[in-house]
Amino acid sequence: MREQLATMTTEAHRPELADIDRLPTLDIARFMNAEDATVTTAVAARLPQIAAAIDGVAERMARGGRLVYAGAGTAGRLGILDASECPPTFNTDPAQVVGLIAGGPTAVVNAVEGAEDREDAAREDLDALALTADDVVVGISASGRTPYAVAAVRHARALGALTVGLSCNEDSALAAAADHGIEVVVGPETLTGSTRLKAGTAQKLVLNMISTITMIKLGKTYGNLMVDVRASNEKLRARAHRIVSLATGARDESVETALADNEGEVKNSILTLLASVDAPTAARLLQDAHGHLRKALEAAAA
């Protein structure tokens, strides 16, 4: 293990930072900020691989599949964070995008020692989901060698699911195990081996792309408007009103009426206003268009 870690970029030591603890706070902050600025360049170098993976995810989800993230520690928490944001942002069922972390829910807030080494736990966690060939499993690991993440990808692939391996080292076991390998090499961390820093930032950026672009391709947006937002609180209800206003240019009174008639559904309200149809017709058009607002508008105009 020590020899293996010594070869990883994410574990590399930076002797020039040996006195970082003696620097003024502002100097350390400036250095970390400059380091973070390099992450987007590292992600940009892998955009073709990221796009190819997203196309695969969207294709599987369009036919009813799920997106499952699997990782340990910071990587697992980032997957759970991304998954948990999908229902309020895109009105997805909580079972559509799922985050798995080595050690289970306890590991979200407390480290569970040794959990990342349990390959059997990864297989058990996926089997509990009754994984199918329509699903996608994204293994996340900064090192690219975490047994839990690698085992999850291998097991999912054996079951016929599409697999993605997201790591921050080249020639990683995780990328090799997956259908789509994404290796975002961000270089050594400010604190040796602390991959919640640049590696974590890179993983967050890629996960943002995977979920957001997939949802765009699934018709969860209209332009750059979140038309599938779930208006579950006052802020989101106000946002729903604003989205309908931006999409239609309608007056506040008309927007309020449309939202009321469509039980707060943003897509349906927009369709009601732009196509001059009633709520039941809007619901039918959207159902026939599999939720794609643009397609529903085209059908209404035909």
Automatic annotation (TrEMBL):
User: What residues form the catalytic site here?
Assistant: E85 (proton donor), E116
Report the family membership. Answer: Belongs to the GCKR-like family. MurNAc-6-P etherase subfamily.
Q: In which pathway does it act?
A: Amino-sugar metabolism; N-acetylmuramate degradation
Keyword Lyase (UniProt):
yes
Please name the top-level EC class of this enzyme.
lyase
Task: Tell me, in a sentence or two, what this protein's role is.
Answer: Specifically catalyzes the cleavage of the D-lactyl ether substituent of MurNAc 6-phosphate, producing GlcNAc 6-phosphate and D-lactate.
Q: Which organism is it from?
A: Streptomyces tendae
* Domain SIS: start-end pairs: 57-220
UniProt GO molecular function: lyase activity
Misc remark: A lyase-type mechanism (elimination/hydration) is suggested for the cleavage of the lactyl ether bond of MurNAc 6-phosphate, with the formation of an alpha,beta-unsaturated aldehyde intermediate with (E)-stereochemistry, followed by the syn addition of water to give product.
Give UniProt keywords alphabetically.
Answer: Carbohydrate metabolism, Lyase
Catalysed reactions, as listed in the record: N-acetyl-D-muramate 6-phosphate + H2O = N-acetyl-D-glucosamine 6-phosphate + (R)-lactate
Q: What is this protein called?
A: N-acetylmuramic acid 6-phosphate etherase
Q: How does it assemble?
A: Homodimer.
Enzyme Commission number(s) from the entry: 4.2.1.126
Q: What's the domain of life for this entry?
A: Bacteria
Q: Tell me any Pfam family this protein matches.
A: GKRP_SIS_N
